[in-house]
Design goal:
60s Ribosomal Protein L30, Chain: A, 2 domains, disordered C terminus
Amino acid sequence: MPELGSTQPIIIKKKIVAGGGHHGGAWKVAYADFVTAMMALFIVLWLMNASPEVQQAVGGYFRDPSGKAGQTGGGQAAAGGEGLSVKKDDFEGLKSQIEQAMRSLPALAALKDQVAMTVTGEGLRIELLEAEHNTFFESGRGDPNIKGVDVLELLAAQLGELPNHVLIEGHTDAKPFAGRAGYSNWELSTDRANAARRLMLEHGLWDGQVKQIRGYADQHLRRADAPEDSSNRRISVLVQYGEAPAGKSAEPPAGKRGGAAAGAHDEPTPAGKSK
């Protein structure tokens, strides 16, 4: 102890006890980060093998966590086009998505060569081309057969999630129609387009999404060099560029959902032909 009057400084030592080992908390933060990273990895792996619908739903959540992006079909798209916006630059992606959906269904995988998709100046044109022994409609009939129903339902489920309007066209080949009197190529092409409209509206398209029905008979042949070729018999679904105007959702003129569509088509000619 220093004597009185001494100038020797008094040194006070403080012992600082730091937490360490199993008493520290730093490892908890590192462990939480590790678990989060593993969970993200498992989610990514799961999404890579999920269906396109699931992938789109999850992607919609991250684009809009409020949940509005998940509204599809007759809900969000019909209410004002706030769903997946497919513009000109996105149509190649939509084309790939539909092709992938077809490949995932064994019953439709064999028909992939009969579904032609082309990005045009009007939009994405999807054509259901008939083959000589593999058709989407029975000969001379307006309603689709089971193969036609399957493809049209798949397209309806895919396109109904978009805010884009669609046009539906019916085409026939140039073979003379051997059916009832007064019923020609013109009536048959329009009836097939209308049947496709009704079916697609019942299985995914929202009310008012179909803006026009076109019946072209044999006036727009796919193969002009072979006017009686089976591929000239087809249904074309044209997905237009742009979106439905906000708040514009046409009400069906008839009692059931799916009645909203324009019925415009070419006027019949006296010498109509049909197959």
